[in-house]
Specification:
- Helices cover 56% and strands 14% of the residues.
- With 327 residues, it is α+β, with helices and mostly antiparallel strands.
- The strands form 4 sheets. Strands 7-8-10-9 form a 4-stranded mixed beta sheet.
- A hairpin with a 2-residue loop joins β1 (2-5) and β2 (8-11).
- The longest helix is centred in the middle third of the chain and has 31 residues, at 203-233.
- It starts with a strand and ends in a 9-residue tail after the last helix.
- Residues 19-65 form the SpoVT-AbrB domain.
C-alpha cells in the first residue's frame, strides 16, 4: 500500500507480531526495504523510538555512509554576494558547491571565494576554472557535538568580557583581537551546519537545535556590545564606584550567558531561575549608574540593551526544560 504525507509518497506495510520462545516478540522486515539497502544476516539495524509511538528502523550502513550532498549554482542568475551564497550552502550542509558563470570569474571573485572558504572549517577550493569554481567540505558534521560548539563560543565570549573587565580596572588601551572574533564566526558557522544541515532530525532534536542557534546568535550579538563598551570606556574616565558597578555588571553578564547555554545542555529549573534572578539584580545595579553622571549615560544604554538581549535569550533557553527527553 502507498500513502502520501505532505505530497511525499511512502510505502506502508503491515506485519503481525509473532512470538519467539517464551518471552520474545518479532516481526519480519519488508522485502523491498531489505533489497534496497542490501541487508544481510548479521547486519546491524538502528531502532529509534519516536514520541508519536512510531518505531524507525535505519540500516547502520546508511547512517555510516550518508549520500554526498551537492549543488550547482548559477551565480549570474542568483545575483548574490559569493560570500553570502557560500555561507548559506555551508550551513545547509552541502558537501560540494559548484559555482558557475557564463562570464569568466575575475580576481575579485576569486579573492572573495578564498576569503569565505577560510572562515568555514573543513572547506577547501578543489577546482578553479575560468567560469567554474568547485568547493568541497570535508567536515563530518555528525562528529561535531552541538554542546561542545556552544561551549567553545561561550568560552570565547567569556574571555572577551573578562578582558574588558580588566581594562576597566587597569585603564590601559586594549583592542579586541581580530583572530578571536574570526574564531567565533568559524565556530558559529560550524554550529549552523551541524544543526541546519543535519540530514535527519526528530522533532525534539530540531527544537533543541533551533534553541541552540538562538543562543549562538545571542553570543555573536554580545561581542558587538562588548566592542561598543570598549570604545566608550576608552573615552570616559570612571570613578572608583562607577568602575565597581561596571565590573559587577560585566561579571553578571558572563554568569547569565553561562546559564543561557548550560540550561540548554543540562536543562534545569534552578539554572533558569538563577539566570532571571541575576538579570533582575543587574537592572537594580544599573539604576545606580544611570543616576551617576550624564557622561556615563551611553554606557548605561549599552548595558541596558545587553540585559534586554540576555532576558530574551534566557526566555528562549527556558523552553528547553519542557522538551520531552531533554531532562
Amino acid at each position: 500500500m502507498r500513502s502520501s504525507i505532505n505530497g511525499e509518497q511512502k510505502d506502508v506495510e503491515s506485519r503481525k507480531v509473532q512470538k519467539l520462545g517464551s518471552s520474545s516478540l518479532f516481526i519480519t522486515l519488508p522485502k523491498k526495504w531489505i533489497n534496497k539497502w542490501n541487508i544481510k544476516p548479521g547486519d546491524k539495524v538502528i531502532m529509534e523510538l519516536e514520541s508519536s509511538g512510531s518505531l524507525r528502523l535505519t540500516a547502520e550502513k546508511v547512517k555510516v555512509s550518508p549520500a554526498k550532498k551537492s549543488i550547482r549554482v548559477d551565480v549570474d542568475s542568483t545575483k548574490q554576494q559569493l560570500h553570502r551564497t557560500i555561507s548559506c550552502l555551508y550551513s545547509l550542509g552541502y558537501d560540494e558547491i559548484v559555482l558557475e558563470s557564463k562570464k569568466s570569474f575575475g580576481q575579485k571573485e576569486f579573492e572573495e571565494v578564498m576569503s569565505s572558504v577560510k572562515q568555514m572549517v573543513g572547506m577547501e577550493v578543489t577546482e578553479i576554472g575560468d567560469s567554474l569554481i568547485r568547493i568541497d567540505c570535508l567536515l563530518d558534521s555528525e562528529k561535531v557535538g552541538v554542546e561542545s560548539l556552544l561551549r567553545r563560543m561561550l568560552n570565547i565570549v567569556a574571555k572577551q568580557i573578562d578582558d574588558l573587565s580588566s581594562f576597566v580596572v587597569q585603564e590601559k588601551k586594549r583592542t579586541t583581537e581580530k583572530g578571536t572574533l574570526e574564531e567565533l564566526k568559524r565556530v558559529h558557522y560550524m554550529l549552523s551546519r551541524r544543526i541546519i544541515g543535519k540530514r535527519e532530525d526528530k522533532e525534539n532534536g530540531f527544537t533543541l537545535g533551533y534553541l541552540a542557534l538562538l543562543a549562538a546568535q545571542t553570543l555573536m550579538t554580545v561581542t558587538h556590545y562588548v566592542e561598543k563598551l570598549e570604545e566608550l570606556l576608552s573615552e570616559v574616565e570612571l570613578s572608583e564606584d562607577e568602575s565597581h558597578i561596571v565590573r559587577g555588571l560585566l561579571q553578571k553578564v558572563n554568569d547569565v550567558l553561562d546559564e543561557v547555554v548550560m540550561s540548554l545542555i543540562f536543562p534545569s529549573y534552578k539554572r533558569i531561575n538563577n539566570g532571571f534572578t541575576m538579570i533582575v539584580q543587574s537592572r537594580e545595579e544599573l539604576k545606580e549608574l544611570k543616576n551617576s553622571r550624564p557622561e556615563v549615560m551611553s554606557l548605561h544604554y549599552v548595558l541596558d540593551s545587553m540585559l534586554d538581549l540576555l532576558e530574551k535569550a534566557m526566555e528562549n533557553s527556558s523552553c528547553g526544560v519542557f522538551i520531552e527527553g531533554s531532562q
